[in-house]
Structures are given as C-alpha cells and as structure tokens.
Amino acid sequence: MPQHDWLTARPIAHRGYHDMNKAIFENTMPAFERAIENNLAIECDVRLSADGKVIVFHDDDLSRLCSRPDTIEALEASEIDGIRVGTGEARIPRLEALLEATDGRVPLVIELKAGPSDPDVFARAVIAGIAHYQGPLALMSFAPSLLAALKRAGAACPLGLTAGGHDGKSFEAHRETMRIGLDFVSYYYDDLPNDFVAGLRDSGVPVITWTVRNERARQITFQYADQMTFEGFDPA
C-alpha cells in the first residue's frame, strides 16, 4: 500500500518521546514536542470525556499518572484540562492541542482506548476532531467495536488493528477483524514471527510493532515487521 509508506518511514515514539516518566511524561505536550523536534512519528492514546471531548490519555483511570482515582470518561474536559501529569507542570492534553502542535510535521498514529464510551459516539467525535487535519494520520484500536464504528462513521484515514497473540484462536479473531477493511496492523513484537503477520506482509499490509524497549525487540521488529513503536532509548 504505497499510499501508506509514511506509516513505516520513521520510528514511532510510544506515547510521545518521553523519558520513561522521569521528567518528560508520556502522552503530554513536552513528549510530543520532543518527538517533533527529533523528526519521529508519534503514537498516542485517546479517550472520550463525559462531555464528548477527545482527550489524550492511556490508562483506565488517573491513579498511576495523576494520583487520583477518577476516569477520563467520568470528567468533563474543563475539569481534565487542569490535571497535572506526573511531577511536572504538564497537563492532560486534548487531541486538538496535539494536532495544532504537530501540524503535519511528523506522522500521528492515534489509538482509541476501549472503555465505557459508546463506540459510535467516540468514533464520530474523533473523526470530527481530525476532519480538517492535513498531515499524515492513522487511527487504530485493540477493540473491533471501535474499528467498526470508525468505518461506519466514514473514517477517511488509514485504520489499523492493535493486536497480539500467537495461537490459532487469536489469528482467527484478528482475520475476522481485518475484514472490516483495515489498512495496517500494530502487533506485539514478542508474538512474532507468526503466520497471521507473515500473510499480511505478503499481501502488502504494513506491520508495525509495540512496544520496543531493547535491542532484541528491535531485531525482531526489523526481521518480521516494517517499523517499531519504541520507548526508552534514542532510535538513532
């Protein structure tokens, strides 16, 4: 799929180019700005606030990163805007802030996290949020329900399945999800090689891996996939 060559052209910074949450925290604007400065693609996660705004955050709740028990889905965006991530000054960002900062300079790979939000409402909010974005951007999810909702909502950008597994039952489920009409796969590196991913690559479907943190994982990636989603080191 030559139109998606940008997806595998550069290493993809997992939740931005953070420093393993020492000073530059994952899924924050400093991590995204550092990725842009280093010409790295950006992977991030999004959830839907209680009032329907697309928020950049990974976890099911805010306890690990923000020391509070709330969830993104239970709070309105105006409440979320003031919540600090980690020990620094960075706040939980909205997707629109990331899009404005990136402005097409590096590719974006955005993962929709499954949760209590209605899949169709979530999908429509994300598509509306990226409607006028001009740069290279892809959407992906572990959740077939969210991928199907993105298709129903008319997503025009590449869509991908985030996945793992190395047994026949997993492969059968993944193939069923791919029939939605997906464009790429993000696969757990330690479940490679396998027949499912090999078949995708043979048919021209791009495969990226998650999450590469050492040389062994990097070697597996470039033997059996096309690009890595990485963290914790300088990919250069």
UniProtKB/TrEMBL annotation:
Record-annotated GP-PDE domain positions: 9-236
InterPro entries: GP_PDE_dom, PLC-like_Pdiesterase_TIM-brl
SUPFAM superfamilies: PLC-like phosphodiesterases
A single GO molecular function term of this UniProt record: phosphoric diester hydrolase activity
Name of one Pfam family that matches: GDPD
GO annotation, biological process: lipid metabolic process
UniProt-listed Gene3D superfamilies: Phosphatidylinositol (PI) phosphodiesterase (3.20.20.190)
UniProt protein name: Glycerophosphodiester phosphodiesterase
Organism: Martelella lutilitoris
Taxonomic placement: Bacteria, Pseudomonadati, Pseudomonadota, Alphaproteobacteria, Hyphomicrobiales
